[in-house]
Amino acid sequence: MNAPRLVERDVPPRTAWALEQAGVAPLLARLLAARGVREAAELDESLQQLLPPSGLKGLPEASRLLADAVQRGERIVVVADYDCDGATACAVMLRGLRLLGAAPAQLGYVVPDRAVHGYGLTPAIVDLALAQTPQLLVTVDNGIASLAGVAHARAQGLKVLVTDHHLPAVVDGATVVPEADAIVNPNQPGCGFASKSLAGVGVAFYVLLGLRAELRARQAFTEAPRLDGLLDLVALGTVADVVKLDANNRRLVAQGLRRMRGGRAQPGVMALFSAAKRDASKAQGFDLGFALGPRINAAGRLADMTLGIECLTTDDPARALQLATQLDAINRERREIEGGMRELAEARLDGLVDALQGALPPAVALFDADFHEGVVGIVASRIKDRVHRPTFVFARGADGQLKGSGRSIPGFHLRDALDLVAKREPDLLARFGGHAMAAGATLARGEVHDVDRFALALARVAEEWLNEHDLTRTLRHDGALPPEAATPETARLLDAQVWGQGFEPPVFCDRFELVSQRLVGEKHLKVRLRQGGRLIDGIWFNHADMLPERVTLAYRLSLDEWQGQQRMQYVVEAAQPQ
Fold first, then answer.
1. Is the pLDDT assigned to residue 1 strictly greater than 80?
2. Is-contact 557 489, C-beta < 8 A?
3. How far is the first Cα of the chain from the last one, in angstroms, to the nearest whole number?
4. What is the spatial distance between Cα 159 and Cα 528, in angstroms, rounded to a whole number?
5. Would you state the pLDDT for residue 357?
């Protein structure tokens, strides 16, 4: 992978000054101003600052639909998705409905098997749900593109509430939504909700806020139940789904992390911390995205997401730990499969480069008969990071179909690109959907040469939409770290903030003299750096190439704990020779 282009973030000086005047530490004020924070009020993480539910189109109808079902004792079945966002959304909906008066016997859920049913509210999933004799189906993290599934459910006499955050389907160039009884989705046409970045679990939480308001208006409570106890699940699903952390999502995540640090999270969340050998009292967004989230996701990739949902819904700590331990074992298996698939994918990629005499197309699609359909998305992400190209990885599904998962780069809206591919190659795709940065597609026929057709069609779109600048990875950094700020206290200050997608953690950039370097664990470069008379330890994970004596490094601050002692080290992200 070529070295990225290092670009310093622009810091509006007046904004940084205003944040300082409001009491924000100078370094943090500079970092926040560079990420679009304009006033200190945006940093207020209190629940009172959350966007009001009233802005969501369809919420009044959804609230009445749910309130009627709860009060009439109707059977409600939640239709979940098989990723962490879907699992947490399901757990939030089930727990929230119980808090708001639904009897346990009223509630059930179904979750598709990735290999058998595919994604969303399909007619087959409706038929599976019918075994639980529902009167109302509630989708979470899916449903906005399920035109046939919603129609099938309505034909069976069921009421349908769709809660989702994905983009609607496009048919013959027009955006269409299913004919459900109610739809809550900030990305549906005509919705004026200010945050379009809610995860599926965030939408589910807002639906419950609407339901509580409706039940309060019906005088169903002497005292309205609190719903903030669900925010640990909202935080987990939001971070794991890699949605943009706008101000509203940062508040949701901050509130959830606060509950985790205080030991007030659901038993399943605390058990996942234990299984991952992470300290919940020091919970950060990194833990959710790289430790807890992958363990939940592993169930949907290799086994049955029921394990993940049961872990998040049980109130028995012993049962939660047993399930979290199972999820941890599945995740270890997932890592082994991913490692083998990644090697195969990189070999395929190297073969493609050789065939094109050292060049790479502006978009990549890979297939191997040994690829596992549950891991294609992870491998696509890894290859995308290596080559900085929109990347699809296909695998043969258990049903014989060729199913692909894609990841994209800034400037290339992957779902829109698939829409254009479908128009240009009408017989190529059976179905597709997703976001700007992640999407999935199933080929209409199970023929391997159709992967090549897809690759060519996607590359053609990429040639039209992307230029050489777009295809060069850019690492945006925050400039030099002031010498007086290179302290453990600064690292702790930064760790206390909510960072993530669209609100990236700080990366600093400085010149150093290399004192020593060595490999640890065969693939990580451990370095000793000198800067202005100071000696600093650093590490570059998954990088084995030695560095020159004088080098410019982009790095993150990290607190390294060893035998109860905390010391600061730099985690290297990129390097350029001086």
1. no
2. no
3. 19
4. 64
5. 78
DSSP string, 142-183: --TT-HHHHHHHHHTT-EEEEE--SPPEEETTEEE----SEE
The answer to whether 97 and 51 have CB atoms below 8 angstroms apart is: no
pLDDT of residue 353: 85
pLDDT at 2: 66
DSSP 1: -
Q: With 80 as the cut, is the pLDDT of residue 318 above it? A: yes
**CB-CB contact of 312 with 87 (8 Å):** yes
CB-CB neighbours of 482 under 10 Å: 12
Token pair recorded at residue 368:
């191997």
pLDDT digits (tens, 9 = 90+) for 481-524: 998 898 999 999 999 999 999 999 999 999 999 999 999 988 99
Tell me the C-alpha to C-alpha distance, in Å, between residue 538 and each of 117, 534, 549. 47, 13, 15
Q: Kind and range of the H or E element at 301?
A: helix 293-302
CB 301 within 8 A of CB 375: yes
Using the 8-state DSSP alphabet, how is residue 245 labeled? -
**Domain containing residue 505:** 475-577
β partners of residue 568: 559
Domain count, the chain: 3
How far apart (Å, rounded) are the C-alpha atoms in residues 28 and 34? 10
DSSP 287-298: HIIIIIHHHHHH
Q: For the chain, how big is the Rg over CA atoms in Å? A: 24
Q: What are the two backbone dihedrals, phi and then psi, of residue 56, each rounded to the nearest 5 degrees?
A: -85, 120
- Name the amino acid, one letter, at 375: V
Same domain? For 398 and 430 the reply is: yes
CA distances from 466 to 19, 425, 500 (A): 37, 20, 25
HEC secondary structure over 413-429:
CHHHHHHHHHHHCCCCE
**Whether residue 117 sits in one domain with residue 229:** yes
Q: Cα dihedral angle (368, 374, 380, 383), rounded to 10 degrees?
A: -70
What's the whole-number mean pLDDT along residues 364-387?
Answer: 94
Cα–Cα separations (whole angstroms), residue 121 to 189, 212, 317, 504, 568: 20, 26, 32, 34, 49
Q: Are residues 539 and 517 in the same domain?
A: yes
CA–CA dist 280, 309 (Å, integer): 20
Q: Is 450 found in the same domain as 492?
A: no
Which tokens hold the place of 460?
């053609």
Tell me which DSSP letter residue 223 carries.
S
Kindly state the DSSP code that residue 187 receives in the 8-state scheme.
T
Domain boundary among 465, 496, 526: 465
Q: CA 418, CA 441: separation in Å to the nearest integer?
A: 8
pTM (predicted TM-score): 0.93
Q: What distance in Å separates the CA atoms of residue 55 and residue 81, rounded to the nearest whole number?
A: 25
Q: Let me know how long the chain is.
A: 578
Give the model confidence (pLDDT) of 421-459 as tens digits: 999 999 999 989 888 888 999 999 989 999 999 999 999
Same-domain check for residues 425 and 393: yes
Integer Cα distance of 26 and 541 in angstroms: 30
